[in-house]
Structure formats: C-alpha cells, structure tokens
Amino acid sequence: MPDAVDVVAGILWRDGQFLAVERPEGKPQAGYWEFPGGKVEPGETPQAALVRELQEELGLTPTAFTFWQEKTHAYEHIRVRLLFFHVTAFTGDIVANEGHRWQWFVPGATNGAPFLEADTEIVAELADNCPRSRTCA
C-alpha cells in the first residue's frame, strides 16, 4: 500500500459537545460519521489545512486550536495519517457546503451513530476522558 495520506480532523467544541459530520452519498463510506477536515495539500502545514478545510466544508474559521494526537489507519482503499486538533473557538455559522448532515454530540452519547473506523477509538477516548460538564480540549 502506498504511503499514508496526511489528513487533518477538527474536534470542534461548543457547550461540552463535539461536532461530527456524516459523509454524503457519492463519497466513499457514505453514511458514516467523522470529524470534519480533509487532506493536507502539498506544501501546506497541517494547521493551514485545518483552517482551509473547515472553511471549505463548513464555512467556519477556527480561531483557537491545538494539536492533540496522530493516528494512522489503513482502509481497504487508502491509508491515512490523521492529525487530530481540538478546536475550542471558531467564527462563522455552520453551512454544509458539501451537502452533508452535521450534529453536535455529547461525549459518550453518540446514539449509535456509526463513525468511521479510524474515528471510533477517538470517539471512545472522548467519552472516557471528557466529563459532560466541560470539554476535554
């Protein structure tokens, strides 16, 4: 399998909840939920990619974010190196520019929403480490 593709993922926080988006029809793994983000372009820093992807995907501009952790995952069709960032402040109103659904989730209460394989451990870690009264960012 070729080298891993670098992908940024933003864990956006608001009132103790994190934002997730559902992959739309026509995309690989449609119907699964994930953290918003996308591929890092050649010559682009992960931080710049995070800002660009959140603006393109959701119309949001992150204004306070920190790198949290890295995870590599091999899907059948691609291997990704995910760079997760906690986003604790952003401007703009959510606009689903790619036609996908979005939802705020309380850590530990995703109501059975199916998350991508690469994100399931992250969702579980958020549930284990984030008291409902605050964010873990």
What order do the SSEs take from the amino end to the carboxyl end, as H and E? EEEEHEEEH
Envelope shape: globular
Alpha carbon gap, first and last residue: 33 Å
The average pLDDT is 89
DSSP helical segment count? 2
The percent of residues in helical segments reads: 10-25%
Please mark out the parts with pLDDT under 50 across 5 or more consecutive residues, or reply none.
none
Question: Biggest β-sheet: count, sense, barrel?
Answer: 7 strands, mixed
What would you call the structural class? alpha+beta
Q: In what range is the share of β-strand residues?
A: 35-45%
Query: What Rg is obtained from the alpha carbons, in whole angstroms?
Result: 14 Å
Count all strands and give the number: 7
List key phrases describing it.
137 residues; alpha+beta; seven-stranded mixed beta sheet; 38% strand; globular
Structure characterization notes:
The chain is α+β, with helices and mostly antiparallel strands. It has helices at 46-58, 117-129, and strands at 5-14, 17-22, 33-34, 37-39, 61-74, 79-91, 102-105. Strands 1, 2, 3, 4, 5, 6 and 7 form a seven-stranded mixed beta sheet that branches.
